[in-house]
Amino acid sequence: MSEGEVWGKLTSLNSNLQNQNLSSNAYKIGRNSTNDIAISDVRISGTHCILSRDQNGSVILQDLSSNGTFLKDTKIGKGKSRVLTAGDKFTLLPAAKVKEGELLGYIFTFNNVENNPLKRERTYQNEIVEEPIKQVKAASSHFEPEPPVSSEKENRIQRYMQLMKKFTAE
């Protein structure tokens, strides 16, 4: 994927923050105006976290804050990183300690399936499984189906089953 093509999106959890289209491989997020995503709030660090995309297309969130970056309401921990998946919510303040409407964070999504390494892998795995099934179905059309069981044979089987029931009941 080329630099400049939109591969993901951050949807703001707060009406005071803008949604962000992601087209670069890394974004610094924090209070400093030099960050790629600058948020002027004294409660967050100068450079609070870094959102980056690796060569495989995985999206990584690295916490650089003493107060924490939270993924699904769980603190990542300063210097630690987590891989994001589509629909993940991350916040720059603990949700439990923030008034309603003041939550600073985003919901991450991929722009399309091709940009999501997990979807690509799942699609590839489905192709591996589905192709042999298609081949078996195609090959099976060359065989004659088994002839239906005659009603006389069915009657004999039913009589046999009835006799077996009587025998085991005695």
What does this structure look like?
With 170 residues, the protein is an alpha+beta fold. 25% of the residues lie in helices and 25% in strands. It is built from two helices and eleven strands, in the order βββββββββββαα. The radius of gyration is 29 Å and the shape is elongated. The model is unreliable at 120-133 (pLDDT under 50).
Give a short summary of the structure:
By secondary structure, the protein is of the alpha+beta class.
Give the CA-based shape: elongated
How would you classify the helix and strand content by structural class? alpha+beta
Poorly predicted regions are 120-133
Give the neighbour order of strands across the main sheet: 2-1-11-10-7-8
Q: How would you characterize the largest beta sheet?
A: 6 strands, antiparallel
Query: What is the H/E string?
Result: EEEEEEEEEEEHH
Proportion of helical residues: 25-40%
Number of beta-strand segments = 11
Would you tell me the overall average pLDDT? 79
- Radius of gyration from CA coordinates: 29 Å
**Percent of sequence in beta strands:** 15-25%
Please work out how many helical segments DSSP would assign.
2
Beginning-to-end CA distance, first to last residue: 76 Å
Notable features of this structure?
elongated, 25% helix, alpha+beta, five-stranded mixed beta sheet, 2 helices, 170 residues, single chain, six-stranded antiparallel beta sheet
List the helices and strands and how they pair.
Layout: E1 8-12, E2 20-22, E3 26-30, E4 37-38, E5 49-53, E6 59-63, E7 70-71, E8 74-75, E9 81-84, E10 89-91, E11 105-110, H1 117-140, H2 151-169
Parallel strand pairs: 3-4
Antiparallel strand pairs: 1-2, 1-11, 3-5, 5-6, 6-9, 7-8, 7-10, 10-11
